[in-house]
Amino acid sequence: MRAATDLLELRPEGLYCPPAGVYIDPHRPVARAVVTHGHGDHCRPGSRALLATPETVAIAAARYGRDAFARAQALAPGETLQLGDATIRLVPAGHVLGSAQVVIEAHGRRAVVSGDYKRAPDPTCAPFEPVPCDLFVTEATFGLPVFRHPPVAEEIARLLASVAAHPERCHAIGAYALGKAQRLIAELRAAGWDRPIFLHGALVGLCRVYEREGVPLGPLEQVGSQGKALAGEIVLAPPGALNDRWARRLPDPVICAASGWMRVRQRAKQRGVELPLVVSDHADWEELTATILETQAETVWVTHGAEEALCHWCAGRGIDARPLALAGRGEEEAM
């Protein structure tokens, strides 16, 4: 039986699976790409063939146009595909709509490339499903013990309390266009906010994709020219928009940011965030370590974040772990 590490190798284009002849989340155009989800640091246009979940295929088309890939093939969770000497299937990762782990089986061994993932409940996407494997490739965006994400409901309650306390101001939240914006909207609906939520134009397109894919978001309106009339309302915008002229149209906005990085007070202060909301679409330290144990993997490759800390934790438990340097990663919200 071959080693599990024979299933994956690192090449200049990114992570490559020799038995299947495909790259996973390549950072350069390749012949065949398997993509875990639609964020731009994992899904890049230009590859000749794309394999992803149906939702990620729809997101890629919305972001890049239907001609961004010569051929796009959707593989629904639960389906399998034979590529070369390997069997490929996609399993939910819980990160954003359509996000998936890539499960590769060949030569009697199994490798799982998790992409980005979280373990907290999210009404806008399927929950993470742990898969026992021999080799597990994990992110480590928040791979330090200091990162413990609070329940999202608590952060939403803090937001709504601030809205009630400042009816003369609007609350403008910096949120990434794919995943974070839609999750915040869904969580606000679950908390009872049934009024329209106002959007920067850059968020509208992907919200429509979510709704077409069966995720209800309730009444949404584009800010447009009505900015000064939005006292007491909630506005979502890309983080960068809250620091430019666009934000001047809003009535004395309370600048908010929704990100796991808001756990770091200095980071919030540097970005002028008045109300930091610790809401992340990535696993925190306890979720990362628990997930590694659940996979029962004998080998762990760590990428995208605090690799050394997580590798050290693995070594202390007899798990063979090493950092996997992947270029071009880093699209956790700009905040």
UniProtKB/TrEMBL annotation:
Q: Enumerate the spans annotated as Metallo-beta-lactamase domain.
A: 27-142
Q: Which GO terms describe its molecular function?
A: RNA endonuclease activity
Alphabetized InterPro entries for the sequence: MBL, Metallo-B-lactamas, RibonucZ/Hydroxyglut_hydro, Xnuc_lig_assoc
Protein name, entry field: Putative mRNA 3-end processing factor
Q: Name the domain of life.
A: Bacteria
Span-the-membrane segments of this chain are none
**What organism does the record attribute this protein to?**
Albimonas pacifica
Pfam families of this UniProt entry?
A: Lactamase_B_2
Alphabetized SUPFAM superfamilies for the sequence: Metallo-hydrolase/oxidoreductase (SSF56281)
